[in-house]
Every structure is written in C-alpha cells, then in structure tokens.
Task: inverse folding
C-alpha cells in the first residue's frame, strides 16, 4: 500500500513540478521584459474566475479535450497523429456543407452533422494510416502533408462552390438550419448561479465527456483496447498473439481521426453554424500538447485541457490592464509541455529502477 | 545501360538526370497554349534554387541528427526560431549577424531537444513535437515585445546576390563579361535554349546565402564520412554500444549531431526570413522542416541525395509562387503524370504490379485533368508541392536504409 501511495504521489509530483517550473520561467521572462509577473498573474486569476470567463474557458476546453483525446488514441498505439489540425478543419468544412444542404427533423439533423464530421475525420486520418502500412510512409510526415493538402487544397478548391450566394461579402458556407444547432447548457448552469450574460455554454461539453468515457472504456477496459495497446508496445509480440499490427494501425488512425472530426464542432454547431474564416485554428497542435501533458489519461487530459483553456481565456485581460503581453501564456504552455515531458520520463525511470530493485529483492528472498 | 550509368562520376550522373528533367519540362511547356516557356525559364530555376535552400538545410539538419540516432521532428520548430532570431539580428545589427543569430536560435532549439532525448531519454518524436509547439509561442511573444506586432516584422535586409562571370554576364573585378548562357537561351532552339536558360537561372542572381548553404553539402559529406568525429557520430547512429565499448563518448557525439542539426535548421529559417520573404512572419516556414525530413528519407540519409530531393521538392514551390494565371502549374500536371507513367513502367518491369497499377491510375487521373483544363485552378499551386512530396514518398519510401539505431533511445550502461 505504501508503494502505491508513493507511486501515486510521484505521478502527481511530475505535472505539479512542471507547472511550478513553467510559472517560475515565465515570471523570469516577464521580469526580463520589464513586466511585473505578480500583477500579471493576479490579473489573470481575478479575471479568469468570473462566471463569463469560466464559460469561455469551458467552451475552449471542450475542443481542446476532444483534440487531446484524438492525439491520445494515436499515442496509445505509438502512433503520432500530427494531422488532427487538417482532419478537424476538413471535417468541419464537409459537415458544414452537408448540414447546410440538408434539413432533417430535429435531433437527427444535429446527429447527421456530428456523424459526417467523424466519418470525414476518420477517413482522412485513416488515409495516413493506410499510407503507413502499405507504403511505409512515416505517419508524422504523411499527416503533415495531408494537413497542407486538406487546408490549402481540398477546402480551398471546394469553398468557392459552396459559398453562400446570398451574402456576397461573407466567404462562408450556407447557414445551417436551426434543427442542426446544438442546444446550450445555460439553463443548467444558471440553476446554480446567476444569469450568464451574452455567453452560451456549448452542449458539446456533454459530447466531450461522453467521448472521454468511451475512450476510457475502449482503450482501458475492452479486449480491443488491450490489443491496441499491445501492438503499440510490441507489434511482434502482438502479432504472435493473433493481433494483426497493420490493421490495428489503420483502425487506430481512423478512431483518432473520428475524434478529431468533433474538434471543430463547438464552432460549427454551437457558435457560427457555418464554415467561414471565424473558426479557431491551431486546436490540433494544442491537442497534442494537452494529450502529452495529461499522459493520455482520460481525466488527466481533461485537467490539461482545462488548464490550457484557463490560460487562453484569462490572458485577454492582460491586453486591457497592460500588465504584460498576452502572448506570455503561449510561452507558459510550451514550457509546461516541455518540462512535463521531461519530468514524466524522469519519474518513469525512477519507477523502473525501483521495480527492478524490488524484483531483484523478491527473487533473492525466494532463493534464500 | 543502367550499369554504365552508375560507372559515371556522381556529379555527371546527376547532371544527366537534370538534363533529362529539363527535356521533360521543355516538352511539357511546348504543349502549353502560347508556349510561355516558364517551366525552363531562368526565373523558374532561380526560384527553384532559392526555394530548395530551406528544404536542403532542414534535410542536412535531419542528416546530422539521425546519423547520430536522434530523430528530429523538431526541425520545423528550430527553423521557426531561426526565422525570428535571424530577422531580429539582421535588423538590429547586420545581415551577417542575422545569419549568425539564426544559427544560434536553431542551435538553442537543438540543445533543448538533445537534453530531452539524449540525457533524459524522452521519446524523440514527443520531444520534437513539444519543440514545434513551443517555438511559435516563443517567437510570437518575442515578436510582440520587440516588433510591437505579434505576426510580422519590418522588412529585413538580405546578404545580396551575385551573377557568375562569363556564364551569366556577371562582373569580374569590375569588368563586364559576356552572358554566354543568356545568348544561347535567346536563340530559341528547342531543348538547347531551354537547357541554357535553366542553367542560367542557377548561375545568375544567386543569393550569397544560397552559396553558403550549398557549400554545406560537400562539407557535411566530408565531416560525416572523412573525419574521425564524423565516424564516431555515425557509430552512435548505427550501434552506439559498439562505439562506447571502443571508448567513444557516444553521448557527446549525439549532442553534437542534434545541436548542429538545430543550427542548420535555424540557418534555413534565417534564409526564409532574410532571402525568401524579406521579413519575419508567423508561420512562414510552411512545413519546410517536415519537407526537409521527407528530403532526408528520399535522399537515403546522404548529402547529395538530400540536395537532389531538395531540388525536386523546391521546384514546385518556386514555380507555384509566381504562377498567377495557373499556366505553369497546369504544365506541371503533365510532367507529374509523365513521371508517374515512368514509375509505373519501371515497377511493371520489376514485377511490382500493385505499384505499377497505382502509379498508372494516378498518371491517368493527372493526364485527364491536364487534358480537360487549360489552366490550373488558383488553389492548386498552393497544394501541388505537398502532393508531390507525398507522391514521392509513396512510391519511393520502401527501398531505403535509415541508420540502424535511428529513433531508439540509448541509455549508457543499459543493454
């Protein structure tokens, strides 16, 4: 029991240490450029704890979490899906076109949009998986090239055809009918707090939680998840255990892409209801950071997504008060990620060394 | 016939390949309405040379790192650091200091990668991805603090350009010289003039910065294959335990490889800011660090191979950038289709039927597209370079050999 406690505290110490280090480093940077870090961080904390900003944070954390889960599915199999960026943008575009063209009754319309997004994301990501197993194209380079082809090629090629003709100044696709809008969670929040003015808590939050639960159940609790993790750890051993590693690569990439397809849905079904230039870019790469920080654990990734979302949504106050450049949070996020990656590995090594020692002790005890 | 080809000296063989390439381009553009002749124009080859340099430098960066067993996905991030530091120092001090600071910025990124992967044993790709995520954050912050604009800097001076005397009419100690290639190009003889004008683009208006980068190709080859330190570095990439047992400080060689790798990527970043665009801009690397890795793979982890791959990948960038009416990209469709047909034939003779059929299908699709249209749509020039990189990897990625220990984590004392 004592060992478990020690192991748990080690697991917690690593992210806390990296968080602390990131704060110290960014405070140092702020001092160097002549800002007062205490004032800046105080401003962020005060502003970030307002109800409206908390809503902003949750709306930001939702796509970050989905993006993090998408990356995590790949990581669990030793695959690096760097293409979440292209997958979610392409999925969002196609879902916007399909959702705008069709009008199904009520809930079905919304469901269709989400399913289309997942299918498109899954196919585009699966293509990278297919290239890897059939042609030996490294998935990192493959997904990056597919990002550029999706965003600069496919979307750019098709956006002209599906541009909404009625509003000539708007470069977006057709507005989706209201049956395809996600209901917000304001009523639920307001039952506990005061009125939320001018903000809407996206119902995608519920979807994200469901995806997190599904991720946990499939990866950690199912036969399939075991196979997936096994072929990630050792493809040869998994193969002799009857798991075809090539098929697992494609399946993992498809699943990862399907989760990625949902990333843009907060913008699409809860905010803009069309694909245009307003949507938030960069969520794919941020998701990788969130997945690594949360150690691919469904709850860990959630904390990481909330942390990054808090920084993103609370930093805008710095512009107003002028206590520091808001960009300092991008540095903080980068430093947190890098130090977390290093401290996790360090803790991992300590743990391995202890396990070897314990095993050696146990076998020595048995022999005597 | 192939055996005879391989008996030729390497440079001659590559020159021969290049001439065949120009012939294909000349034929393709002769079909283009109006026969604009832009694929073999000196402006095209000059643009190719310029646009291949960042890819070349990223590829050489990858070479140093992977020859020492460390996969460097972080090249893109190190390049980004190079763009900012290069632009800043070029503005603050001088263009030459821009070059130096670009190198330093990239090397700093390389050092971080080395600490994480070599000393702490972090997975190479994870550390690289972390650097790629951190680097744009750092440059955005610095940019908004220093330039007062989070996405862009003021105009940055470059190192200047030169023309080669005699061949392209450059001055020789102040004296005018003839422009031999230029006059052949003006004759308008099919293929001969094309070859001359293409070659002229490579020897006129060369950025001094490009010359420095090109000199690094033989220099890298010499260092890695002809010096003791280079041999030791490569031993770390093939079988570090063997090197260690002979008293080589493998860890130090890995650090050297990764830091040099970052420095080269940073140099490539400084080149982008100073020579290609003339200012620092957020996201201006456009995935060239990754394309450099593709060049490294396609170039089979060798300097000359990387140079050839960089030319191949840089060419569509150079053509597409100035292709406002889509005519050049349209002609490029025919070229790509032709190349795929050759790949298909070659695969068929080697009895790799799946490859043959796949390449043929792509070739037919591209050809049909070419025939059906007069100009390429406006988005194609932007996507074409990435499609070509992916196609090359799809049809070439299998018969290559990476360093044996590439991507694995070495721990001193662990077996």
Result:
């Amino acid at each position: 029991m004592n060992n478990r406690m020690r192991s748990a505290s080690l697991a917690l110490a690593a992210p806390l240490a990296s968080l602390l280090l990131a704060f110290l480093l960014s405070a140092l940077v702020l001092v160097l450029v002549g800002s007062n870090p205490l004032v800046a961080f105080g401003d962020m904390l005060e502003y970030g704890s307002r109800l409206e900003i908390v809503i902003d944070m949750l709306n930001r954390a939702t796509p970050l979490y989905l993006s993090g889960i998408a990356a995590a599915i790949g990581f669990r199999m030793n695959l690096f899906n760097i293409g979440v960026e292209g997958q979610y943008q392409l999925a969002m575009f196609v879902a916007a076109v399909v959702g705008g063209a069709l009008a199904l009754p009520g809930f079905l319309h919304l469901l269709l949009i989400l399913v289309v997004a997942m299918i498109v994301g899954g196919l585009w990501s699966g293509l990278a998986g297919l290239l890897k197993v059939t042609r030996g194209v490294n998935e990192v380079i493959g997904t990056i090239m597919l990002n550029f082809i999706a965003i600069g090629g496919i979307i750019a090629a098709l956006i002209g055809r599906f541009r909404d003709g009625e509003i000539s100044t708007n470069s977006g696709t057709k507005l989706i009918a209201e049956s395809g809008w996600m209901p917000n969670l304001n009523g639920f929040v307001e039952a506990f707090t005061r009125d939320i003015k001018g903000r809407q808590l996206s119902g995608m939050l519920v979807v994200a939680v469901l995806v997190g639960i599904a991720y946990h159940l499939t990866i950690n609790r199912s036969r399939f998840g075991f196979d997936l993790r096994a072929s990630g750890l050792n493809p040869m051993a998994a193969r002799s255990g009857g798991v075809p590693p090539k098929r697992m690569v494609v399946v993992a990439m498809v699943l990862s892409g399907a989760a990625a397809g949902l990333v843009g849905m907060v913008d699409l079904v809860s905010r803009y209801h069309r694909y245009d230039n307003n949507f938030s870019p960069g969520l794919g790469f941020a998701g990788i950071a969130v997945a690594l920080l949360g150690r691919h654990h469904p709850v860990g990734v959630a904390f990481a997504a909330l942390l990054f979302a808090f920084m993103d949504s609370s930093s805008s106050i710095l512009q107003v008060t002028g206590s520091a450049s808001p960009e300092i949070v991008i540095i903080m996020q980068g430093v947190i990620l890098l130090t977390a990656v290093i401290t996790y590995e360090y803790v991992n090594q300590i743990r391995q060394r202890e396990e070897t020692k314990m095993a050696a002790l146990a076998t020595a005890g048995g022999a005597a | 016939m192939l055996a005879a080809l391989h008996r030729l000296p390497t440079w001659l063989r590559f020159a021969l390949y290049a001439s065949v390439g120009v012939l294909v381009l000349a034929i393709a553009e002769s079909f283009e309405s109006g026969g604009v002749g832009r694929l073999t124009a000196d402006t095209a080859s000059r643009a190719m040379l310029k646009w291949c340099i960042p890819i070349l430098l990223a590829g050489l960066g990858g070479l140093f790192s992977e020859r020492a067993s460390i996969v460097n996905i972080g090249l893109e991030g190190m390049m980004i650091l190079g763009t900012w530091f290069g632009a800043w120092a070029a503005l603050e001090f001088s263009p030459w200091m821009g070059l130096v600071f670009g190198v330093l910025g990239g090397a700093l990124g390389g050092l971080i990668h080395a600490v994480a992967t070599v000393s702490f044993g972090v997975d190479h790709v994870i550390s690289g991805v972390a650097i790629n995520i951190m680097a744009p954050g750092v440059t955005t912050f610095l940019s908004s603090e220093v330039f007062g604009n989070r996405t862009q800097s003021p105009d940055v001076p470059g190192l200047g350009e030169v023309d080669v005397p005699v061949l392209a009419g450059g001055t020789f100690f102040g004296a005018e010289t003839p422009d031999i290639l230029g006059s052949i190009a003006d004759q308008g003889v099919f293929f001969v003039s094309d070859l001359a004008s293409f070659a002229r683009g490579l020897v006129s208006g060369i950025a001094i910065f490009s010359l420095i980068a090109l000199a690094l190709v033989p220099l890298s080859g010499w260092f890695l294959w002809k010096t003791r330190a280079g041999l030791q570095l490569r031993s770390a990439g093939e079988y570090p335990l063997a090197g260690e047992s002979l008293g080589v400080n493998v860890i130090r060689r890995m650090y050297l490889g990764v830091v040099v790798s970052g420095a080269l990527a940073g140099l490539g970043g400084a080149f982008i800011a100073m020579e290609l665009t003339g200012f620092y801009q957020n996201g201006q690397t456009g995935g060239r660090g990754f394309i450099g890795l593709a060049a490294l793979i396609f170039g089979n982890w060798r300097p000359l191979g990387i140079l050839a791959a960089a030319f191949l990948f840089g060419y569509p960038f150079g053509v597409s950038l100035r292709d406002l009416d889509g005519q050049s990209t349209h002609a490029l469709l025919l070229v790509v289709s032709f190349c795929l047909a050759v790949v298909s034939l070659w695969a068929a003779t080697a009895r790799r039927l799946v490859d043959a059929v796949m390449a043929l299908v792509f070739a037919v699709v591209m050809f049909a597209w070419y025939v059906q249209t007069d100009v390429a749509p406006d988005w194609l020039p932007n996507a074409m370079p990435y499609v070509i990189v992916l196609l090359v990897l799809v049809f070439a990625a299998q018969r290559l050999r990476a360093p044996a220990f590439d991507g694995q984590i070495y721990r001193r004392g662990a077996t």
About this structure: Chain A has 16 helices and no strands. The CA atoms of residues 80 and 331 of chain A lie 23 Å apart. The interface with chain B takes residues 29, 33, 80, 82, 131, 135-138, 140-142, 144-149, 152-154, 156-157, 285-286, 288-289, 292, 325, 327-328, 330-331, 333-335, 337-338, 341-342, 345-346, 349 of chain A (CB under 8 Å). The first helix of chain A runs from residue 2 to 32.
